[in-house]
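Per reviewer request, we include the raw input and output of the structure prediction for the construct analysed in the revised manuscript.
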Amino acid sequence: MIMPMKKLAEGISDKSSKSARSTQIPEIHVDQLFSKHYVNLVRFTQRYVHNIDDAKDVVQATFIEAIRCSDRYKGSSLPSTWLFGIALNLARDHARKRYVTTIRMADESLIDDLLDVSANPADLVENQQLASSVEKMISELPKRLRDTFELVLEHEANYAEAAEKMRIPIGTVRSRISRIRQQIHVIVD
């Protein structure tokens, strides 16, 4: 459910006093941004989360984050660009969490199939071969790729945390995970 911005803003402490803002930095009016960009933000985030309800949740989280962080807006971009940047980060994070959940569910399903004595033997053999192929592919990855994969997917670190822990740029983390996903898709498909 979407809360009106004024009501939402009342629940979050106002960090942006006029004395703390420079007169050169434009003030953020989240309620105006909401009325002007809500529909476009839902469409934008839906491209990442592939579900209208999840997209609306991400957009609501975007406006909450915008209210919380409005004092950090530097004015170096348009307020709408800043807002879409927040939405993009939250949508990517949501999509990554959904991907990890899907992988876990697939792993659990595979284990259930392997333990199910009444399952189709051909499916069991196929699942075992598929799991073996993916395991082999992951074990043969260069250590730096394997470490990145394990940190992000097994230890549930987000890309920024993984980059910080590994002392590499966040773009490197993204490209490594992307390469691994592509290799897994080749095996699975």
